Amino acid sequence: MSSTDLKARATSKASGIPGVKHIVAVGSGKGGVGKSTTSCNLALGFAALGLKTGILDADIYGPSQQKLFGLRGKPRQLGPRMLEPMERFGVKVMSIGFLVEEDSAMIWRGPMVISAITQMLREVAWDDLDILVVDLPPGTGDAQLTMAQQAPLAGAIIVSTPQDIALIDARRGIAMFQKVSIPILGLIENMSSFCCPTCNHVTPIFGHGGARTEAERRGIPYLGEIPLDMQIRQTSDDGRPIVAVEPDGIHAKRYIGIARDIWTSIITSAVHRPPPRIVIE
């Protein structure tokens, strides 16, 4: 399916956020699995498919999209309650990291986190986006529930490394989204293996195939694996993500391929539903 065909299949129905057609959340049960790097490169993958794309960094305590995209400064204020998102590599970006000092500690309780996420969703001029990627913090707390309530999500993507200790937490993330009736679009295995640049020997540092097995066991799509690679790490640290700077490289093609599969799943299932009502039993 070509990029033009993919874009043509998008519906025109708004998803609850003005100007945004589809919203996908990228989550993980635990930190340190490369979720933000994956979110960044998936957003760039969607843009590479010709889609109008934005990314919202909902990790209030540990924002990183401003660093990954190499962006500095503050968003321009368009009115008393509206901000213009920053933009780079064809992707619109909003993060609390634009609004606070880099070394500031966000010592906020739940209500403040909820308010900040709601504002970044609804008081940002996203304009006309085909897809908005939301980089969630690790865990299953206020940020995740806020997204489930405030925005009708087309679905969620879970990122995990292959080892059992990460998959335990990934299962919690899957269970949380299922509890609030958010479709699971798939599971990505990050840091799947390491290929030595000198001898080309492949070493499964964190194991290999655990995410695929978990996806098959739970009957959810397995979206693929991303290797543990120095080039991905270095370009991320430099604010020049691999999909943006080497779009024809092997790693970029993996991200773009996963983005294509996610987009196809979204537009073929056409999941548009009102925000679920969270019930504490």
TrEMBL record:
Swiss-Prot/TrEMBL GO biological process terms: iron-sulfur cluster assembly
UniProt cross-references to SUPFAM superfamilies, sorted A to Z: P-loop containing nucleoside triphosphate hydrolases
Record InterPro entries: Mrp/NBP35_ATP-bd, NUBPL-like, P-loop_NTPase, YlxH/NBP35
Binding-site residues, ATP: G29, K30, G31, G32, V33, G34, K35, S36
Family: Belongs to the Mrp/NBP35 ATP-binding proteins family.
Subunit organization: Homodimer.
Designated name of the protein: Iron-sulfur cluster carrier protein
Organism, scientific name: Bradyrhizobium archetypum
